[in-house]
């Protein structure tokens, strides 16, 4: 996807200076001038507050389980009320990850971590939307607590994905097998387990003041789950390959999640144990790998930025190297942005704004080969990414459903594309839904706030329901965008 980002000469120099042999060339030095956060934002291209409201509302359309009376997307109804019964456990609730009716624990946990990080960094700017963001997080953590209720066991998926994908039916009508898949001591999954620990730890910070007892439950469970992830090492894709692949195979291994999980537990508990773990295991867990992606599978970049805060703001000198890695990954991410989908647009925008916040707090700049890059430069680039998503692109199309005058009308999403239970109370059978899926008619139910895969690298977007790569939304695409939109809405006085 061509994001139409114009790099200035200094930024191009920085891109060129990052090679595998010059990993530590760029370092932070004390800033010599004002780093005021508003200097880079000259005008508001969009109604970021409206986009923020919608980006959070989207999660209500992905809810599984018994819906509350406060449910705002009322075309959705209760679903999956017997989830877990196949193994005599309660796994009702949580989120469907995308346009299907399966609950995948790996991306659900990452979604939870990123929603929580959005609130941790920018929740103070959200005002009226903060409570809605907390409720979106709690819908996930209540489920993750159920999935981790038994020691050394995590239930990581509900639903047979292959059979689910063979049907086009509403979640309210599901009759495909709600098979339950788990990891344990004999079939470990350090990747999904450590991500779950990260999610619980991050969420504990969100609820620390508003619900201290719930926060304590989350962090204690996070500690236990991380111990399991670290003690019984292995990738869940190895044991559950027929069920989780090709949907959410763990391609990057589990080392990044262990580092990520430890970083979040250190942030949540302040225990030296986790700082020691990072210092002792950082290199073996891939601290010097040059990955330039950040998403549901690969956490290297996020871990380095999170850990770099301890060096930047708290001046933990033993974490100095992570600052160098963070600089490298930031620019690698920007370079990658010219050919990627919306998952990387949203995650990169969030990381840029968060890193800019850390640099500003520490009064530091990034320098490279005599060139300096200010936090404001990072914010400007983040704004361009978000603006592209919201409509500043060749097609003048918003890739957030329900935002702007022109947005995708035929997204790859079963519940959105089929008539709601209120309109069509009769069951829609497994195969009969495909006639609607293949039609050119717009989806009858607007999944407000859903960010879809987006255009290809030539900025083309056909708006075809069958094109899941470009037209399917996912919770992990929306989660980091929540934080980015909160910052932008606040910066322009919209909140």
Provide structural commentary.
Helix content is 46%, strand content 5%. By secondary structure, the protein is mainly alpha-helical. The protein has one domain (9-491): Glycosyltransferase, CATH 1.50.10.10. It has a three-stranded antiparallel β-sheet with strand order 1-5-6. Strands 2-3-4 form a three-stranded antiparallel β-sheet. A hairpin with a 2-residue loop joins strand 5 (364-368) and strand 6. Helix 2 (48-61) packs antiparallel against helix 18 and helix 13 packs antiparallel against helix 14 (375-390). The longest helix has 20 residues, at 212-231. The protein is globular, with a radius of gyration of 22 Å. Mean pLDDT is 87; it is low at 1-40 and 333-340.
Question: What characterizes the major β-sheet?
Answer: 3 strands, antiparallel
- What does the overall shape look like? globular
Unreliable spans are: 1-40, 333-340
Q: Assign the CATH topology.
A: Glycosyltransferase
Beta-strand fraction estimate: 5-15%
**Largest beta sheet: what is the strand line-up?**
1-5-6
Query: How helix-rich are the residues, as a percent range?
Result: 40-55%
């Amino acid at each position: 996807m061509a994001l139409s980002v114009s790099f200035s000469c200094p930024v191009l120099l920085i891109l060129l200076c990052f090679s595998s042999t010059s990993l530590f060339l760029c370092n932070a030095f004390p800033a010599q001038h004002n780093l005021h956060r508003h200097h880079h934002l000259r005008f508001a291209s969009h109604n970021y507050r409206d986009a923020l409201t919608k980006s959070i509302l989207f999660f209500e359309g992905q809810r599984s389980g018994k819906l509350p009376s406060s449910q705002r997307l009322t075309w959705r109804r209760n679903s999956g009320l017997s989830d877990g019964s196949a193994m005599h456990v309660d796994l009702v609730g949580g989120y469907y990850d995308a346009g299907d009716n399966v609950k995948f624990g790996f991306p659900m946990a990452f979604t939870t971590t990123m929603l929580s990080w959005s609130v941790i960094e920018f929740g103070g700017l959200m005002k009226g939307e903060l409570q809605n963001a907390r409720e979106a997080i709690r819908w996930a953590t209540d489920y993750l607590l159920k999935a981790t209720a038994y020691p050394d066991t995590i239930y990581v998926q509900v639903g047979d994905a292959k059979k689910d994908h063979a049907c086009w039916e509403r979640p309210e009508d599901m009759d495909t097998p709600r098979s339950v898949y788990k990891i344990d001591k004999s079939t470990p999954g350090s990747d999904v387990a450590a991500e779950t620990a990260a999610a619980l730890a991050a969420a504990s910070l969100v609820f620390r003041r508003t619900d201290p007892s719930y926060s304590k439950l989350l962090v204690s469970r996070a500690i236990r789950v991380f111990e399991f992830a670290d003690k019984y090492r292995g990738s869940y894709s190895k044991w559950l390959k027929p069920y989780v692949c090709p949907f959410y195979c763990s391609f990057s291994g589990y080392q990044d999640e262990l580092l990520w999980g430890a970083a979040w537990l250190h942030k949540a508990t302040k225990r030296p144990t986790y700082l020691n773990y990072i210092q002792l295991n950082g290199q073996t867990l891939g601290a010097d790998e040059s990955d330039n992606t950040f998403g549901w599978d690969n956490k290297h970049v996020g871990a380095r930025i999170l850990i770099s805060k301890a060096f930047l703001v708290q001046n933990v000198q033993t974490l100095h190297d992570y600052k160098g890695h963070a600089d490298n990954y930031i620019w690698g991410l920007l370079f990658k942005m010219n050919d990627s989908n919306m998952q990387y647009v949203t995650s990169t925008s969030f990381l840029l704004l968060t890193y800019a916040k850390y640099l500003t707090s520490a009064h530091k700049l990034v320098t490279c080969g005599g060139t300096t890059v200010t936090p404001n430069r990072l914010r400007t680039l983040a704004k361009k990414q978000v603006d592209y998503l919201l409509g500043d692109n060749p097609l003048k199309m918003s890739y957030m459903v329900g935002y702007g005058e022109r947005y995708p009308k035929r997204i790859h999403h079963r519940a959105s594309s089929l008539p709601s239970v209120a309109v069509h109370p009769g069951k829609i059978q497994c195969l009969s839904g495909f006639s609607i899926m293949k039609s050119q008619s717009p989806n009858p139910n607007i999944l407000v706030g859903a960010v879809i895969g987006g255009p290809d690298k030539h900025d083309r977007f056909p708006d075809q329901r069958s094109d899941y790569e470009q037209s399917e939304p996912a919770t992990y695409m929306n989660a980091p965008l929540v934080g980015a939109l909160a910052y932008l809405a606040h910066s322009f006085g919209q909140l």
